[in-house]
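Example record

One chain of 353 residues, shown exactly as stored in the release files.
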Amino acid sequence: MHSLTRRSVLSGTAAAGAAIAMPISARAVAPLAAKQAPSFYRYKLGDDEITIVHDGARSFPPPDIFVRNVSTDEALAAAEAAYMPKGMVTVPFNPTVINTGSKLVLIDSGYGPNIAPTVGLLPANMAAAGIDPKQIDIVVLSHLHPDHINGIRAADGSPAFPQAEIKVPAVDWAFWADEGNMNQAQGFMVDYFKNFHRVFDPIKGKLTKYEWGQDVGPGISALDTRGHTPGHTSFAVASGSAKVLIQSDVSNIPDLFLRHPDWQVMYDIDRNRRLRRATNSTTWPRRRRRPSSASIFRSHRSVMSRRTAPITGLCRRPGTERCRQGLSLAAASEVYDRGRWRALQAHLQPRRR
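Predicted structure tokens for this chain:
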């Protein structure tokens, strides 16, 4: 039996003190993960399966003209109210994959590789969603800005979707391919024209140009929503009695420009026309009834409906860290109050004459 003596008590105390005094660096430290969980959101539309796949997001201090008709302070206040990093705006990128049963259609391709570590995540998140890029049959581009077209090429320049037919809006193509327009470009538009040629010149003979009013895939109609660009296109998707509007960049960042449809983002080429689109929505194809009030409204920037939450994770507690890190936060149905939801429904109804 061990006997407790004064010497043993003192030696034990000294040993404990030495253990406490060990430097913190000697402890095991887990490495930083530096990544979010794979981000995608999947839902049924009639017989179709639709998957919103997150390509990433970029946060940056906005230039003074980011919102042309309001002050930077007012724009940043709206961004902070939507839980974006203080002093910054966050732009998310969310391409859409539609499985119609006969075709696998990708709408927009994201920012692509080698731009920034927070974007170009489409291939990894498609893999997490169980979607093989080699199985994509059609890639439809809504317009030809870099964050929509760069992803059609892999990091080595090879086709990212090798079996896919690439479809571009004819009106937008005519604008960006015009040398006169390129020679007159100023500011960021100079780089946008250069990027257009970088992406498309090697494959311009292999593209299909589509017109508004045409079907670009089974049950997917191209809609004229020009304004953001001259050929900007939204898409009406219908399967059975179910319908959805994929509106692309009509509202750009929904947290700012859907809440404030009169605000004008610097990237809109025809700002007044884009404003009319944002406030009046668009013309639904005659052969396909406009969505009812129970239908879903989709933007490539966000996932939004009364039945869904953002692809970056549930955001039912807007003040939490998860929501602060989410990239399509205020687009969640829980964040939009009833009044804004009714206003959104009104935009989707036919205009009274």
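Notes: The CA atoms of residues 106 and 291 lie 22 Å apart.
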